[in-house]
Amino acid sequence: MKGRGPNKGGARHHENNRIYAHPLPLTFSDPSSNRTRPILGLLGLSRSQVINPHCEGYYDASTRSVWVVNQRDSEILWRRGFFGKGNLSRSEPSWFVRQVKDRQIRRVGSNASKMTSEELREKRRADRKQFKLDRAAAIAKVAAEAETIFETEGRVVVPALFGPQIPSGATWKPKTDESEPATDGNSDETEAIVKNTPDIEEALEDMEHLQLTLQEAFFLTWNFDCITILNPDTDEPLSLKDIWTSFQQVFLAPSTSISLTPVLEFDNPFLVHYAAYHHYRSLGWVVKTGLKFCVDYLLYKRGPVFTHAEFAIVVCPVYEDPQDQESSATNIQNASPFTWSWLSTINRANSQVMKTLVLAYVTIPAQCRLSKEILNSPACFAHYSVREVIVRRFIPARMRD
Amino acid sequence: MLELHPSYPALASIAERYPAHRGSLFQTYNDLLLAQQWREVEVIDLGDCRRGALQGKRPKTATDADALLHVVPCSLAESISLDWIQNAFKSLDNPQSLYLAVVSDDSSIVYYKLSSGIVKPSI
């Protein structure tokens, strides 16, 4: 069972531990030898240095994200902390690799290399579909047999829905893969075709980039200074001040009056979501978006490559002063009391996929207590707090222990 | 930044008419054309919904490859009413179903199939 190819078992686990060894883009180097290091350590000294990869990204206001187009930077940001997502892929940017493989299959008819996660997903779906068809056919067969027994012998047999004749998740095996490389006879033909038709497909350009959400980009630039965010029109780096104001401005309603400085608010969605993002990231979780599960964020213990997310977070902003909510121009989501049906739906959807639903209440500070001046710098986050409430469905009849 | 992308020219006129939604239109267009590999992808002006929509066909190898499908992009920040959905159906000449593409900031897209009327679940 172990080690049946690059996608299976122990080999992949070791490979993943090697590739995804660093939890953050910054790494450390220590020029001291193994003998001097403990001696220096005893004296409270260390010669270790921080290595900053200095990545670059472009800010795009229309998609409210930062694009990392450089391949070296995308790889670093994904492999060291799982930041970002390939905009044409499921997780890490793999569009170019998939296109190359598709062309290889079209030309030669075989695909021997390691499968991308998208290909694994398609295979898994195809297998599941086949399993369902096989099971339905077996059930129909058993039912038909029961019918004939009744007609011929008059004996009533209740057709089983499971049992030795009906495949179940544990017993069903997919048919062996039939996409073998072409036999000798065919390969001569395909070679001839390849030689005769000139390569009319144009050179393939990589159309994909790694897309970082504004929270991820701000986290990387403010805390570690490991990414420089550039203005796409001028190619000039944006200062932290510019980044701070633009990231909030993109969420504000377009104002009719032309003002040089945007009016910053405590309930700007960027601030509220960043408070939650920073909270979980600083506790060591890998935080990704939870669009597929109707939630705001998913928490992974080490990363999507290792295990499924255990927790699904919904950010519920709470105004310290209810007056602020009434006078607010921003209609931030989930700030009003939710209906039980909403909660029930989201909880059900997440229980099905074995995730625990967590409601993260982010407190928005009151305007009567704090001046809006503090919004001019990220120091304002000291006034936002995050509290979690875990939701689990309680079934009295079953949960007696 | 998205104006610099090679696929922008196909969207340019509609994106400029409805700048508020050009981000979701751009991301959905790229996903359908490049990632899902749909064929005959075209942009339609959906004036009543104040945005552009997309139509196209699934790849040749997919089931139901010849059906013309309609996709209306929207972003997570919006709230959508039944009226909005009705308008979308009307502007597209009342197709049997349309796909709502919900686009997130990290470029994840979730497609919801909305059908006009009650649909029996497939077996």
UniProtKB/TrEMBL annotation, chain A:
Keyword entries, A-Z: Endonuclease, Hydrolase, Lyase, Nuclease, tRNA processing
Active site: Y300, H308, K355
Group of enzyme by EC: lyase
Chain ranges passing through the membrane: none
UniProt signal peptide: none
Highest taxon above the source species: Eukaryota
Pfam families linked to this entry: tRNA_int_endo
Region (Disordered): 168-191
EC number(s) given by UniProt: 4.6.1.16
One Gene Ontology MF term: nucleic acid binding
Keyword Ribosomal protein tagged: no
GO cellular component, one term: cytoplasm
GO BP annotations, alphabetical order: tRNA-type intron splice site recognition and cleavage
Xref: SUPFAM superfamilies: tRNA-intron endonuclease catalytic domain-like
Residues covered by the tRNA intron endonuclease catalytic domain: 270-362
Role played: Constitutes one of the two catalytic subunit of the tRNA-splicing endonuclease complex, a complex responsible for identification and cleavage of the splice sites in pre-tRNA. It cleaves pre-tRNA at the 5'- and 3'-splice sites to release the intron. The products are an intron and two tRNA half-molecules bearing 2',3'-cyclic phosphate and 5'-OH termini. There are no conserved sequences at the splice sites, but the intron is invariably located at the same site in the gene, placing the splice sites an invariant distance from the constant structural features of the tRNA body.
Family under the similarity heading: Belongs to the tRNA-intron endonuclease family.
Identification of the protein by name: tRNA-splicing endonuclease subunit Sen2
Automatic annotation (TrEMBL), chain B:
A GO MF label: endonuclease activity
Similarity comment: Belongs to the SEN15 family.
GO BP term, pick one: tRNA splicing, via endonucleolytic cleavage and ligation
Organism annotation: Lentinula raphanica
Stretches assigned to the tRNA-splicing endonuclease subunit Sen15 domain: 27-122
Lineage of the species this protein comes from: Eukaryota, Fungi, Dikarya, Basidiomycota, Agaricomycotina
Signal sequence, start to end: none
Pfam families referenced in this protein's UniProt entry, alphabetically: Sen15 (PF09631)
Entry protein name: tRNA intron endonuclease
One CC-aspect GO term: nucleus
Gene3D superfamilies xref list: 3.40.1350.10
Keywords: Endonuclease, Hydrolase, Nuclease, tRNA processing
